[in-house]
Write a structure and sequence with these properties.
This protein has 448 residues and is of the alpha/beta class. It contains 19 helices and 14 strands. The strands form three sheets. It has a six-stranded parallel beta sheet with strand order 3-2-1-4-5-6, with helices on both faces. Strands 11-10-9-12-13-14 form a six-stranded parallel beta sheet, sandwiched between helices. A two-stranded parallel sheet has the order 7-8.
Length: 448
């Protein structure tokens, strides 16, 4: 039986460790936070991820999953140690902060005995694997180990399915011993038909960054197309459908909105941009996606302010959704945070509701009136903003909403409703990429 240690019980570590246990392996997750480990022993999950609580409970009960604060307990008997610590952006330059990763390596190396595979599961800059090899060599030149890059491709809100039924598994391993252990670990997924790609370390590290940067560019592109659609009378929903039916393009990440956020796309695009600059080149497409996304947040905030007709001071805005996407409590770089801050700076009061993310958002935002449900957030507001695509927001009673709002105005940044139906209810409704400008052809000459 292969023994696995997972360092870090954040989003990636907890999901990966639990799913490896679900595949039948013996997994010990390590975290330095005593309170978090104690909570996990009580069955309390620190993040919102659908299905994760049940999966943790069942694997703990089966004896395949355990949690500890003692590094030696987990690392000593491990055949593979997965490093899943945080690599956040440095505030000053946008590069990934590897201090937690280096600290983990420094603690792990003296505890190793026998051949061990050290696997970076965290998203790390290209070249990090080589840095770890140099660091370990300086500590113990005779250590019997391999460095492997095994990036995660987990979507928040669908992480369990993404792990257990992946599009692909990427393994950057450069010795047969390392590849052999990784083949054993991922054999259950390979037997289900998952594609497992073996590369060198740098290639595996780059695949993660390249994939996220491409998806970020796709989001920024469709947001630009949505703005153009409004000017020329097209419907971006149908435009997206028409594009997505092309198998070369695909339908995912073609929904316009307030811009991308979360723990991956903003951080990874900036880190890749910086890496390229140090290598002597510019990633013009990636840089454009970054700039467009920052502009997007301000543009949608300006749209809300325009809805108020310039009379901002003393108005009340209801914001539905503060998580960066549905089915998560993650508010890291959520567009909603920028939107709320812009509204407050303009003099508006904000009352907001989110099914899962209010506690996290309250640590960052101040002077927000947090509501117990969406209707409480709507009560007395001059305009409502749908900022996150929670299912709960797709089925609102719009007749009730109209009565609660001081003015029947809704800005839908996720295109959850049909404009014609909203007009029938009597709500002044603004969505993304679906505004028809009458006689647009009289304003803009179409080239023949």
């Amino acid at each position: 039986m292969v023994q696995i240690a997972v360092i870090g019980t954040g989003y990636v570590g907890l999901v990966a460790g639990t799913c490896f246990a679900e595949l039948g392996w013996s997994v010990t997750c390590v975290d330095s936070d005593d309170a978090k480990v104690a909570a996990l022993h009580r069955g309390e999950i620190p993040i919102h991820e659908p299905g994760l609580d049940d999966l943790v409970s069942s694997n703990v009960a089966a004896g395949r999953l355990q949690f500890t604060t003692h590094m030696a307990t987990a690392v000593g008997p491990a055949d593979a140690v997965f490093l899943a610590v945080g690599t956040p952006s440095k505030d000053e330059d946008g590069d990934a902060d590897l201090s937690q990763l280096f600290a983990a390596i420094d603690e792990i190396v003296p505890l190793l005995s026998g051949h061990t595979v050290l696997v970076t599961k965290s998203t790390v800059p290209i070249g990090t694997g080589r840095l770890l090899q140099k660091r370990i060599a300086a500590m113990n030149a005779d250590l019997d180990y391999d460095i492997v890059s095994n990036p995660e491709f987990l979507r928040e809100g669908a992480a369990i399915d993404d792990f257990l039924n992946p599009d692909r598994v990427v393994v950057g391993a450069e010795t047969e011993r390392a590849r052999a252990i990784m083949r054993v670990l991922y054999r259950p997924l390979a037997e289900r038909g998952a594609a497992v790609l073996y590369t060198n370390i740098e290639t595996a590290e780059m695949i993660k960054y390249a994939a996220n940067s491409f998806l970020a560019a796709k989001i920024s592109f469709i947001n630009e197309m949505a703005d153009l659609a409004e000017l020329v009378g097209a419907d971006i929903v149908d435009v997206s459908k028409g594009m997505g039916l092309d198998s070369r393009i695909g339908s995912l990440f073609l929904n316009p909105g307030p811009g991308y956020g979360g723990s991956c796309f903003p951080k990874d695009t900036r880190a890749l941009r910086n890496l390229a600059r140090r290598a002597g080149m510019r990633l013009k497409v990636t840089e454009a996606a970054i700039d467009a996304n920052e502009d997007r947040k301000q543009a949608v905030a300006a749209r809300i302010l325009d809805m108020l007709g310039g009379q901002i001071m003393g108005t009340t805005v209801a914001v539905l959704g503060v998580a960066f996407k549905a089915n998560t409590d993650d508010v890291r770089e959520s567009p909603s945070l920028d939107i709320i801050t812009t509204l407050q700076n303009a003099g508006a009061r904000v009352q907001a509701y989110d099914p899962e993310a209010m506690d996290q958002a309250a640590k960052i935002l101040s002077n927000v009136n947090w509501a117990n449900d969406p209707y409480a957030a709507l009560k007395g507001a001059d305009v409502a903003v749908i900022a996150t695509e929670w299912d709960e927001f797709k089925t609102l009673d719009m007749q009730r909403a109209k009565l609660l709002l001081r003015q029947p105005q809704i800005v839908d940044l996720r295109n959850l409703y049909d404009p014609a139906q909203m007009a029938a209810v009597g709500i002044d409704y603004v969505s993304i990429g679906r505004a028809w400008i009458p006689r647009w052809s009289e304003q803009y000459e179409v080239a023949e």
